[in-house]
Design a protein that fits this description.
- β6 and β7 form a beta hairpin.
- With 139 residues, the chain is an alpha+beta fold.
- The termini are far apart.
- The strands form two sheets. The protein has a four-stranded antiparallel sheet. A three-stranded antiparallel sheet has the order 5-6-7.
């Protein structure tokens, strides 16, 4: 798992989690992913029941996953989409491709459809929705 994560792969599979019994008591939750040598490889959403145990949100250690985090990712996704589309009708966030694993956001003009599909994102919906309001001011 370490080699894949270092190359940018965004997932950790259940068989690769060393402390799954301990984490299962808190799941779903945010975790720091630690390599064998103790180096932190990133922050992820952890779900002990999923076929993907952890979905990497950031390759930086101990980063806060809050409104500012989501606003930054959404601004980058928006800037990219605005280069591709003349009208605001598109998939604004497409999961791992936009650094937002387990999240799909479709934009229909001034309206948005938000689909969290990873366990743990439900607990982050308020900062996510606040970030969407900050970046796009949807109706």
């Amino acid at each position: 798992a370490e080699a894949r994560l270092r190359r940018g792969h965004p997932w950790v599979y259940p068989r690769e989690v060393r402390n799954s019994a301990e984490l299962s008591k808190m799941s779903p939750c945010l975790v720091n992913i630690m390599a064998q040598d103790g180096e932190i490889l990133g922050v992820a959403l952890y779900n002990h029941q999923g076929s993907i145990a952890a979905r990497v949100l950031s390759e930086h250690a101990f980063i806060q996953i809050d409104q500012a985090f989501f606003a930054d990712r959404l601004r980058r996704a928006l800037a990219y989409r605005e280069q591709l589309f003349n009208e605001p009708f598109y998939r604004l966030a497409h999961g791992e491709a936009d650094g937002l694993p387990g999240l799909t956001v479709d934009r229909y003009g001034s309206h948005l459809c938000v689909q969290p599909t990873a366990a743990g994102l439900d607990a982050l919906l308020w900062p996510l929705l606040d970030a969407l309001e900050e970046v796009l001011a949807p109706e």
